[in-house]
Amino acid sequence: MAWQLIYTSAPRLLEAGRTGFGTVARHRAVSGMLASSVERFSQFARLPGHDPRRIIYACRILTVGSGSYHVLSCLQDAGSDYTGRTNHIAHHLIVEPREARTLAAAGITPADVLHGMHWRRSWTDGPRYLDAAEEVDLSAFKAPASHSWSSITGSQASAGILWSRDVLKGCYLITPAGVNTLELFQESLQQETAQAWQCRFTTCLEPTDDPADFRWIALPDSSPLRSQVENSSRTLLDLTNPSTLPLPPEPEQQPVSPESTALPPPQASFPLPAAQQKKVHQESPASQTASTLGNWAPESNQKRTAAKGKNYIGFSLLVAAVLILIVGGGLILKFHHQKQQHLAEDAYVSAIAKTWQEYDLLLDDTRKFLESQTSWETGQSLLQSHRDFFQGMRKVLNQPEEQIDLPLPNENRDDLRSFSLLLKEWTALHNDPWSHLRPDQGPLQAAKINETLGKWQEARAKLWRQLRAYVSLKISPPPADALIKKLKEIAKDSLRSTPPAQNSRREWEQLFELTEEGSVPVDAEVKKWLTTWAALDGPGGYASAQQTLADMSLPEWLRALAAGVKPPAMRVAVASGSTKPAGKEKPKLAAPVEDADSPTGTSPIFIHLLQSGEAAAGKITGLPVEAGMQLYVGASRDAHPPPDGKTETKDGELKRWALISLDGRNDLMFGPKITAAAVDTLTFSETGSLTSLPESYSLSPDGIRMVARDKDGMKVLFDLRILPLSSTATRPVFARVIEATADNATTTTLNLPAGFLGRLHLAGASAPEYSLRREGSFSEQKIFSLRKSGDSNFEVMPPQMQSSFALERNGLERQIKELEAGIVKDNADLAALETSKATAREKDIRRDNYTKARSDKEIKLRTLQDRLQSISGPSAVHFDLMPGDYTLVVATPDKVELCKLRVIPAATSNSKPVNP
Questions:
Q1: Which InterPro entries match (predicted)?
Q2: Bridge partners of 606?
C-alpha cells in the first residue's frame, strides 16, 4: 500500500496558519521531514517555452533520515487558485522498499503505476490528513502493452537501448511531439522488471530539477533546456533522428558446461581410492609385526629397541613442549591482535560519533554507511574525507559569499548529496543578490529596494529551514558586511540622483537604519540628507529650507524641495484662502492621533494567556488587520504614547517594527529590522490570524504587547497582549479554585487603562467562565462574575451589598450629581482655556490636567451609574473597573488560568509605564 501527498495552492494548508502553495493532504505515516523533502520537487515552471498543458511523470528514490522511499509523482496545471492566480497540483505516491520488492517480483514497474493511477487534477476540499482507507493498492496496476518504440525506430527491440551500459550511467531523451514518453519508459522497464524499481526517471525535465536525481531524463524537442543538455557529458538519445540511435545490446547467453567436465560438489573430507587404501593397510606397521624369522629375536635387538623407545619418548616430550610453546605463543599473539583490532574499531566508531556531535549532523544514512565499513583502515580514510567536507560545510554556511569549492567524498550517500545541493543553492543565493538593482534599468525607490531585500531574506530563511533537515542549525548568520555595504551604496546612489517618491522619507530612513549590520554604520552623508529632509517637514521647516538652499553639497532634489517651503504666515493664508492677515486666522485643528492607553479609547484589547510549552501561533484569530498597517512591539507592560514621527522611542515603550514585503502573498510579516531572520519575525495572515511569533517572546516571562495602527498611524486597530503562565490548576468548584490558587500561583501582572473592560477580548478562549477578584483589605475583597455578552464586552454581576438598597441608592444618586456637575465645569474650563491669553506651554499643561481630571470623573461616573442600575434588579449590567489591583480568573473544564491586572489611570503621551 502506498501513501499519498497532495501539494497545491489553497487558502488554508495542512500546516496551521499557512496559505498559498503547500501540502493540503497527506497520510499521517508521512513524517514532517519526508513531507518537506517531497515538497521540494513539487514546483511547476511557468517560463517561456514550457508548455503549460504538459503533464510530468517522475520516479525518484528519496533518502530521508534512516529510511529510503520510492516517490512516484504527477505534476500538472490546475487552473486558477483562490486568488485568481495560476495554480498547479503535484500528486505523489510514496512507496516503501519492501512494497517495491513485492511489486518487482510480480512484474509491476513504476511506469505501470504512473500509467494506471487516477491522478488528481485539482483540490477543492479543506486541508486534512488522509485515512488508512485512502492508501493506494499498487498490485493491480498492470498497464497494457504498447508499441511506442517500434513506432519511432521500426523495431520493438529498441526498448533495450535504455539498458545499454553507457545509457545506464545516465542519459537524455529528446522526444518528438505526439510521443507518449511514459509508454517508452514502460516498454523499457518491462524488459528488466527485477531492476525496474531501482531506475529513476522523469518524462519532462524542469528548470528546478537536479539531473542527478534521475537515470533517464526526457524532454520535448521544443524545450528551452535542450541547448543546455546537449552540452552535457550524459549520453544523448535524439528520438527525432532515429538513425543516430545506438543498437540495443545483445541478450547475454549463459555458457553451459558439459557433464564430463563438471566438478564434484565440495566434500567435508577427501577419502583415498580403495586400491590405495588397501596398499596402505598392507604396508602399515601392524601388518609387519611378524618377521621372516618367526617369533624369535636376539636379546641385543630387544635392548636396543627399549633404548630407542626411551629416546623416542624423550624426543616426543621435547617436541610436544616446543609445539605447546609455539601454539600458546600464537594464541597469545592472536588474542593481542584481536584486542588491538577491537580497540581500533571502537575508536573508529567513537570518531564517527564525535564528528556527528562536533558538526551537529543529522545525516543518518551517511553515518550508518560509515559505521558499516568492515575494514576500519578503509573507514578511517573515508571518515577523513567526510570530515574535510564538513569542515568546508561550516565555512560555506558562515561565509557563503567567498565561493568555497566543496567537492563531495568519493563514496557518499543520497542524504549527503541532497545536502550538498542545498549548500550550492545557499552559496548561489549570496552571489551578487543585488545585480538587478541597477539605476540604468529605471529609477530605484526605497519601496523597490526594500522589496528586493525582503524577498532575498525570505528565500534565505526558507533555504535555511531546508538545511536544518540535515544539520542541527540555530539562528541563521547575518548577511556579510560586504553585501549590506553594497546594497547601501546602491541605495545611496539612487537617493542622490533620483528624486524620491512623495511621503517616502520614512521608508528611506528604515532602509538605511534597519540594514545596519556589524561594522556597516549609516553613511554620514546620507544621514545629513535624511536629517535635512526631516527638518524641512518639521515646525522650523522654513529656516531649515534657507540653510538647505545655501548648501551646494546636497542633492538637487532636496534643494528643490527646500525651494518650495513657504514661510509660516504664508502657509496659513494659503490654507485659509482669505486675504485677511494670517495672524488673525485660527489654524484648523488636525485630527488627533488615537491613544491606545486612553480610558476613553474604543480599540479592542486582546489578551491571550499562554500555557507552558504552548505556541501562540495559530491560536489567536480574528484580529482586525489592514494592509500596510504599522506595528509597535515590546514587552506586555510597555507603554505606547501616541507617535508623532519626531520623538524617539524610550525604554519601556513599544518600538515600531518594519513591514517586510512577501512576494505574491497577502501575509503581513514584521521584524525589528528588514534584515531580521525568519525566527525573529512575526506574521499575520490576511484573515487576522497570528501565524508566527519570535521564539524569544514566546519564552519571555514578560510576554509581548503589540499595538497595530492604520497605515497613517492615526487610528489604533488593536492592542494584543500575550502573557505566559507558569502554573495551572484543576479543581471541581470554581469559587474554591480562586481561594486555593490565586494567592499561591505564579501569575503575570499586566497594566491596563481604566475602562478597558468593554474593549476586552480573550483570544483563544471560546466560551469559558470569567471572574474578577478585587484585591485589597478584607472589606474590599469582592468577586465579580463575568458573562460574555458579545464579541467585545462583558456583563458583570456585582456581589450583593450588605447595606440597604434604599440608602445606597440615595448615596449613589448624590455622588452621580456631583460628578456630572464636575464634568460640566471641566468642559467649561477647557473651552475657556482655548481663548485665554496664557502661553502655549501653560495651555498644554493646564489642558492635560483638565483632561485627566475629567477622565477620572467620567470613569467613576460610569461605575456609579452601573451600580445604581444593578441594585434596582438582579439583571446583569455593563461594568468597567476603577483603578486598582485585580485577579482575572479564566475557568475551563480542564484548567484554570490566572492573570494579575493592575488597572491604572490613563497614560499621558509623555508618561512612563507603571511597573509593579
A1: GAP1-N2
A2: 720, 761
Tell the residue number behind the cell numbers 497605515, with chain if given.
711
- Residue 712 CA, distance from chain mean position: 31
Give the integer Cα–Cα distance in Å for 533 and 553: 14
Instruction: Provide the grid cell at 267.
Output: 566434500
CA atoms lying within 13 Å on the CB side of residue 592: 8
- Tell me the C-alpha distance between 670 and 693, whole Å: 10
Q: How far apart are CA 324 and CA 766, in angstroms?
A: 87
Sign of the torsion angle spanned by Cα atoms 124, 692, 90, 141:
negative
Give the H/E segment covering residue 76. Answer: strand 67-80
Beta-bridge partner residues of 660: 669
Output the CA–CA distances (angstroms, integers) from residue 517 to 435, 447, 485, 530, 555, in the order listed: 20, 20, 9, 19, 26
pLDDT digits (tens, 9 = 90+) for 231-247: 888 899 999 888 888 88
The SS3 call for residue 280 is: helix
Residue the block writes with cell 501527498: 5
Residue 249 DSSP symbol: P
Give the residue among 536, 470, 543 at the shortest CA–CA distance from 500.
536
pLDDT (0 to 100) of residue 38: 94
Contact 359, 389 (CB under 8 A): no
H-run or E-run covering 37: helix 32-40
DSSP 258-290: -GGGPPPPP-S--PPPHHHHHHHHHTSGGGG-S
- Give the number of residues written for the chain: 916
**Of 2, 6, 4, which is closest to residue 126 (Cα–Cα)?**
6
**How far is it, in rounded angstroms, from Cα 561 to Cα 530?**
13
Measured CA distances, 238 to 50, 160, 175, 230, 232 (Å): 19, 15, 7, 10, 14
Look at strands 171-175 and 216-220 and give their pairing: parallel
Q: What is the 3-state secondary structure (H, E, C) of 675-720?
A: CCCHHHCEEECCCCCEEECCHHHHHCCCCEEEEEECCCCCCEEEEE
d(CA 63, CA 69): 6
The residue behind cell 529596494 is: 449
What does the alpha-carbon distance between residue 649 and residue 81 come to, in Å, rounded to a whole number? 43
**Averaged pLDDT score across all residues of the chain:** 75
Round to whole Å and give the CA distance between 385 and 389. Answer: 6
| Closest by Cα among 19, 81, 15, 14 to 662 | 19
SS3 label, residue 435: coil
370's CB contacts (< 8 A; 6+ apart) are 352, 379, 382, 383, 386
Q: What is the dihedral of CA 135, 138, 139, 144, to 10 degrees?
A: 150
Q: How deeply is 608 buried, as exposed, middle or buried, from its count of CB atoms within 10 A (0-12, 13-18, 19+)?
A: buried
Distance, in Å, from the CA atom of 597 to the CA atom of 554, rounded to the nearest integer, reads 41
Span 735-745, average pLDDT: 33
Decide: helix, strand or coil at residue 888. strand
Quick one: average pLDDT of 193-217? 91
Do 237 and 220 contact (CB within 8 A), yes or no?
no
**Are 71 and 92 a contacting pair, CB within 8 Å?**
yes
Q: Which amino acid is at 74?
A: C
Nearest to 663 by CA among 21, 141, 109: 21
pLDDT at 707 over 90: yes
- Residues 471 and 168: their CA atoms lie apart, in Å, by 32
pLDDT (tens digit per residue) in 402-423 = 777 788 887 888 888 889 888 8
